[in-house]
Amino acid sequence: MPLALLALAVGAFGIGTTEFVMMGLLPEVADDLHVSLPTAGHLVSAYALGVVIGAPLLAAVTARMSRRTVLIALMALFVAGNAASAFAPDHHWLLAARFLSGLPHGAFFGVGAVVATTMVAPERKARSVSLMFLGLTVANIAGVPVATLMGQHLGWRATFLGVSAIGLAAIAALAALIPHDRVAPAHGGLRGELAALKSLPVWLALGTTVAGFGALFAAYSYITPMLTDSAGYADTSVTLLLALFGVGATVGNLVGGRLADHAMRATLFGGLVSLVVVLGAFPLLMSTPVSAAVAVVLLGVAAFVTGSPLQLMVMEKASSAPSLASSANQAAFNLANAGGAWIGGLALAAGFGATSPALAGAALAVLGLGMAGTAAVVDRRRATVPTAGRERVVAAHVPDALDASLTR
């Protein structure tokens, strides 16, 4: 695999660290800025809002630019947002800084996925995407725990300065390792880019992302009370168990990338079915400490097996605007984060028990399966159109010389 994928993984590591570390630093931030814990929780939402808005917007407005330049500029914006977070004088400024930090998140992964796939042979595209996402999953194993400890001992501002340093390292790696590219101007400009998202298969793929990863976050958002109330773990053990989730996510990401290169749709279906089974078994698995630890690992594996195939599927369905579609998939991922947590919370608030968010997640995974199945039926029907019509469809979806856009 090209060494340039390492540069993308370093950027993904920094982004993954800053996205999830705030959840562990909320008590310190709330105490330092003299706000309540629920008010401090808005900082998590501000980042997610930045991702949802920035992902499609920045990908669309930078469509005419060199992808190498775009990646470096997005990482520079990431550094600026985290540095602003470190020096924020009050809660309102920190909210704005967290929003700014979230803006480049989705576009970086979206454009990065396109760049990654252009640097490898067609049969290795899913694997290249999974290697970029490796930085995100490793962040959950090492980046977030270390950054949380740093914030608890040196102050939360030191954490965001540290993340800014990771961003600077990513900029240096991108500048040194990503090849210069020549990208033809997008046909029709911004309007042409947005028009590529009118396809039903694109929206079915995005819907599968929202439902599938919504299933994950319905359970994962409430994994701490499951581990303490149902499995009997002490609060001090939760950090280690969350690192186990990161291990499972890393394994699932790598396995999913390798399998998707051979059978993309089968890998997607297999991951979603596994997610239904694992989440459905949570009430039983959370009954003992050992089986609960296994459940946390299996949850990470099952959820992240679907990551690479979903990213590639969206890019293929909107092949005339792959950067925009891929970035939109990252926005869908963050909608899944917010929506899944909300649905899991409804189950918990209804008094169905500590493991009820997992069952709500299983229902969402079934919905994701339904959307993936509908997408398969739509593709099969479109494949049966008459030859002349099929030629017109293919001509309308030829990628804009993606595989020839990078030169070594």
Automatic annotation (TrEMBL):
| Compartment list | Cell membrane
Q: Name one GO molecular function term.
A: transmembrane transporter activity
Q: Which GO terms describe its cellular component?
A: plasma membrane
Note the InterPro entries from the entry.
MFS, MFS_dom, MFS_Efflux_Transporters, MFS_trans_sf
Q: Where is the Major facilitator superfamily (MFS) profile domain?
A: 4-380
Where is the chain membrane-spanning? 42-63, 70-89, 95-117, 129-150, 156-179, 200-223, 238-256, 268-286, 292-310, 331-352, 358-378
Q: Which domain of life is it from?
A: Bacteria
User: Taking the first listed entry, what is the main subcellular location of this protein, grouped into a coarse class?
Assistant: membrane
What membrane topology term does the record carry?
Multi-pass membrane protein
Q: Membrane: is it a keyword of this entry?
A: yes
Q: Which Pfam families match?
A: MFS_1
Keywords on record: Cell membrane, Membrane, Transmembrane, Transmembrane helix
UniProt name for this protein: MFS transporter
Organism for this UniProt entry: Streptomyces aquilus
Q: Recite the lineage of the species.
A: Bacteria, Bacillati, Actinomycetota, Actinomycetes, Kitasatosporales
